[in-house]
Design goal:
By secondary structure, the protein is mainly alpha-helical. It contains 2 helices and no strands.
């Protein structure tokens, strides 16, 4: 019984260690691409875009008479 558990744990360990790098690669490449896009656009353009979006979507208070 103990030998079967040891083999199962060894197989699980090898599966996790062997497949981890292959499984995480698309995720890390996605973040690298996202960082490249963020780095390409100047910060002032991001600030301007955020301001325009905020002004467009802010809630207005109803006028009280």
């Amino acid at each position: 019984m103990l030998r079967g558990i040891a083999w199962a744990l060894l197989a699980l360990y090898l599966l996790v260690v062997g497949l981890w790098s292959a499984a995480i690669t698309p995720i890390s490449l996605t973040f690298a691409g996202f960082g490249a896009v963020l780095g390409t656009v100047p910060g002032s353009a991001w600030l301007l875009a955020a301001t325009v979006i905020w002004l467009k979507h802010r809630t207005t208070q109803p006028a009280t008479a």
